[in-house]
Amino acid sequence: MIADRPLWAARLRDERNRRLWSQKETAVRLRNAADEQTRARLPDLASIQRYVRDYEAGKHRPGDLYMALYCQVFGLSANALFSAQSSGLPLDHHPTEEDAANLTAWIESTNTGDDAVTHLAEAALLLAEAHTQLPRNKYSPTSFAFIGRRRCFCMGESSDSARPVSCSVSTPTYSPTPAC
């Protein structure tokens, strides 16, 4: 770490590198994290990428908007990213309520709850079953229609499509069009 670079700048770079994101990828994610109205007021992607570079170099500290976007993108609290204290933890460190809050925020930001994982596993199993019914060495686009047809199983076709719903699924059948 460069001695004159602030700790928050090093944390921003470390978090980005930990996720294996480029500065451009981080800029895209920051832009996408903004709501539609805010996104319309943001500068172009190249400018946001320059901001990311300058923030990581410690040239400028992010304002409130970019602090909030960084927190959302990384799934960490503002205190965890931008506090003046060192991020290095002593060997005898015991988790605090803040550590628990940061972990909870990260878990929620990944959006992979038990239900989602269960539904994906069930959909994969159904696809595997359907695959065994195909003639050997013959793959057709209809096998991929099965995935689209089972989207209702994973995502739900209800008034609230963001909530998973269970469809009863028996023997997989092939259809060129989804039939939920």
Task: Provide structural commentary.
- The protein has ten helices and no strands.
- The protein has 180 residues and is mainly alpha-helical.
- It folds into two domains: 7-87 and 96-110, 434 Repressor (Amino-terminal Domain) (Orthogonal Bundle); 113-180, no CATH class.
- Helix 2 crosses helix 4 and helix 2 (23-33) packs across helix 5.
- The longest helix has 19 residues, at 114-132.
- The chain is extended, with a radius of gyration of 22 Å.
- The termini are far apart.
Keywords:
434 Repressor (Amino-terminal Domain), mainly alpha, 180 residues, 10 helices, single chain
Summarize the structure.
The chain has 180 residues and is mainly alpha-helical.
Annotate the secondary structure layout:
Elements: H1 7-18, H2 23-33, H3 36-41, H4 45-57, H5 64-74, H6 78-82, H7 97-110, H8 114-132, H9 141-149, H10 151-155
- Named CATH topology of the largest domain: 434 Repressor (Amino-terminal Domain)
Low-confidence stretches are 142-180
Query: How many individual domains?
Result: 2
Fraction of residues in helix: 55-70%
Compressed to H and E, one letter per element, the order equals HHHHHHHHHH
